[in-house]
């Protein structure tokens, strides 16, 4: 008796996955299948790399990887990447073109690059189908997140057209909850959709395919019962960290090494230490839908995460490591990060963290090799942060920005507005002080929030967004009625909430000025035997040098953590440097007028940094030639 030969499985990640990163989902599933089903053959298609190569070649070098980023990442809220492939999906090169042109005119959007790319989309899909089918797969599995839906559907349709016996499986964030069922029932060529995490469901589905039995017991799975799309009940069970494998990136590495796009790419590895959000379990940020239906926080032990990082770095000789955790496990400050710091490697870690980290924790991140963090700052006004349920104050966020400068941490963040219940009075004091923050890293911009599926704003209309409909951009992406889009899509349009008109314009203009002024701004403090010297070289403000001595020098050190006037008064007395209450109030008023502190309600936080971040140089001017030294 001979054993049944293993399956041939092809795992696919399509555009618009970032071309400098391997697909974590493909890497995890590859390792999972190899462990659970060693007789199966697993191949991969890295469609993002292939698409960048295809564009470069077919356009004669006119469409470069930078254009890939502008359409695939920078235009995510306009659906340009999906639209590029919608003509291939619907077998009509002109499908949605007029709608996109009209949309672009209304929104001031440049779409010429997207149109240039679309001319090559159908040929690319045909070439990918030929490549995949050459391996004679039994199963093709697609992972889809954000703008990967339409490219993946286009290729799946072509594969099934050429080989109707092929089994097509979809999974990923775009398939969570009702989105997965809508994707399945509206696309007959998709045989199965895995909703939620795949580590348990995918092997279970493969066992049913082996046996030829209906997958009625696979939680969350969508499957066809004749012509009826069935959606199995989703499970509340989450994948334990011990069952999350370490990814296999060997085929990605081989594809990258052979790619003509490699010279345009600075590759990074992707690792996963935790899933879910420990803050969101207690206080779900009102606007955030990123964790979907799996909010429960789970984390791998720090030593295990380090061993995975060490293995991947040694194997691929790549020191840039991106963690996809939505929030860092605080235990990593006790084990993983110290181990990384002591490794002696020149790692460059990218991490998403909460914005209330202490200066010591930010310093440890820097020592461990973190060069880029996303601290979820979102706002610098405490009342708006309360409306978000962020659990942090504006003063604390400003302190985080200052400490990122001190420890050479690149900090990516967005300034969000448009929350139900916010008023112009919530923003006026913040906007007035933004010029004083010009030496700290600015947000990418000031952005009105959009309603996201799975967020509290979405699940509870009583929070302020009772009217909603699928975002306008989906009209030029999908040929589906609105009732189906309401289940399929992630983003929704609503009537604007919060500030508008002049307060909105003032906020946006102040942020634009901040972005322009940051590269040429510094506000540095230095201590000597006589006290503290502050050199002010901020764009848009007079160049000054300030000296603080006595209780004033002690006070500013105390303000680094952020203090109220009353608390500062007590601390100065405790430190043996009592200050008369009236003099302290006058001094706080003075340093506030000079932009040396940020005031958040009754709390003041000191703004000068102790160091300049690596690569940034102080705008040096001889103090004698400046506007003059001003004593505190």
Number of strands: 26
Beta-strand residue percentage: 15-25%
Major sheet description: 7 strands, mixed
Distance between the termini: 91 Å
Structural class call reads: alpha/beta
Side-by-side strand order of the widest sheet: 2-1-3-4-5-6-7
Question: Which bin fits the share of residues in helices?
Answer: 25-40%
**Spans with pLDDT under 50 lasting ≥5 residues?**
620-632
| Overall body shape | globular
On the 0 to 100 scale, the average pLDDT is 93
SS field, number of helical segments: 23
Oligomeric state of the chains in view: single chain
Radius of gyration from CA coordinates: 27 Å
Describe what this molecule looks like in 3D.
This protein is an alpha/beta fold. 39% of the residues lie in helices and 16% in strands. The chain has a 7-stranded mixed β-sheet, sandwiched between helices. The termini are far apart. Residues 620-632 have low confidence and may be disordered.
Record keyword descriptors for this entry.
single chain, 632 residues, 7-stranded mixed β-sheet, 5-stranded parallel β-sheet, globular, disordered C terminus
């Amino acid at each position: 008796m001979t054993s049944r030969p293993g399956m041939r499985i092809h795992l696919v990640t399509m555009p618009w996955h970032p071309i400098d990163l391997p697909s974590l989902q493909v890497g995890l599933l590859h390792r999972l299948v190899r462990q659970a089903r060693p007789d199966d053959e697993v191949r991969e298609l890295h469609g993002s790399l292939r698409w960048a190569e295809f564009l470069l070649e077919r356009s004669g070098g006119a469409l470069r990887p930078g254009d890939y980023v502008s359409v695939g990442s920078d235009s995510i809220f306009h659906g340009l990447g999906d639209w590029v492939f919608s003509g291939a999906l619907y077998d009509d090169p002109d499908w949605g073109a007029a709608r996109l042109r009209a949309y672009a005119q209304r929104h001031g959007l440049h779409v010429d690059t997207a149109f240039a790319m679309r001319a090559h989309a159908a040929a690319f899909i045909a070439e990918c189908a030929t490549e995949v089918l050459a391996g004679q797969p039994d199963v093709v599995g697609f992972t889809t997140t954000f703008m990967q839906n339409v490219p993946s559907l286009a290729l799946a349709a072509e594969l099934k057209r050429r080989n109707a016996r092929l089994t097509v499986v979809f999974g990923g964030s775009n398939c969570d909850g009702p989105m997965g069922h809508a994707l399945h029932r509206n696309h007959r060529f998709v045989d199965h959709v895995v909703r939620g995490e795949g580590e348990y469901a995918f092997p279970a589905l493969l066992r049913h395919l082996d046996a030829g039995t209906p997958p009625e017991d696979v939680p969350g799975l969508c499957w066809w019962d004749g012509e009826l799309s069935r959606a199995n009940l989703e499970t509340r069970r989450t994948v334990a960290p011990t069952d999350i494998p370490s990814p296999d990136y060997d085929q990605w590495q081989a594809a990258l090494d052979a790619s003509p796009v490699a010279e345009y790419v600075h590759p990074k590895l992707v690792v996963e230490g935790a899933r879910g959000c420990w803050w969101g379990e207690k206080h779900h940020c009102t606007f955030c839908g990123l964790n979907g239906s799996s909010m429960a926080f789970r984390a791998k032990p720090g030593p295990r995460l380090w061993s995975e990082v060490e293995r991947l770095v040694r194997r691929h000789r790549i020191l840039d490591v991106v963690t996809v955790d939505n929030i860092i496990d605080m235990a990593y400050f006790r084990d993983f990060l110290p181990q990384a710091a002591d490794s002696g490697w020149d790692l460059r870690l990218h991490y998403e963290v909460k914005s209330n980290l202490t200066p010591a924790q930010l310093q440890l991140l820097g020592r461990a090799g973190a060069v880029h963090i996303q601290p979820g700052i979102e706002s610098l006004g405490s009342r708006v942060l309360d409306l978000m349920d962020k659990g942090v104050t504006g003063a604390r966020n400003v302190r985080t920005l200052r400490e990122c400068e001190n420890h050479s941490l690149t900090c990516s963040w967005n300034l969000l507005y448009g929350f139900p219940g916010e008023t112009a009075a919530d923003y006026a004091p913040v906007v007035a002080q933004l010029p004083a923050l010009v030496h700290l890293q600015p947000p990418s911009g000031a952005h009105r929030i959009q309603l996201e599926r799975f967020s509290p704003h979405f699940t509870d209309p009583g929070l302020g967004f009772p009217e909603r409909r699928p975002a306008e951009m989906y009209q030029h992406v999908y040929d589906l009625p609105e009732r189906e889009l309401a289940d399929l899509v992630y983003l929704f349009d609503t009537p604007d909430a919060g500030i508008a008109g002049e307060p909105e314009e003032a906020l946006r203009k102040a942020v634009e000025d901040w972005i322009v002024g940051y590269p040429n701004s510094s506000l540095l403090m230095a201590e000597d035997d006589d006290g503290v010297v502050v050199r002010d070289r901020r764009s848009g403000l007079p160049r000054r040098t300030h000296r603080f001595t006595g209780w004033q020098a002690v006070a500013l050190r105390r303000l680094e953590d952020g203090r109220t006037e009353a608390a500062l008064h007590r601390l100065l007395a405790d430190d043996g440097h009592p200050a008369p209450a009236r003099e302290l109030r006058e001094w706080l008023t003075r340093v506030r007028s000079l932009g040396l502190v940020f005031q958040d309600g009754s709390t003041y936080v000191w703004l000068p940094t102790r160091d300049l971040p690596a690569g940034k140089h102080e705008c040096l001017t001889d103090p004698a030639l400046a506007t003059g030294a001003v004593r505190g």
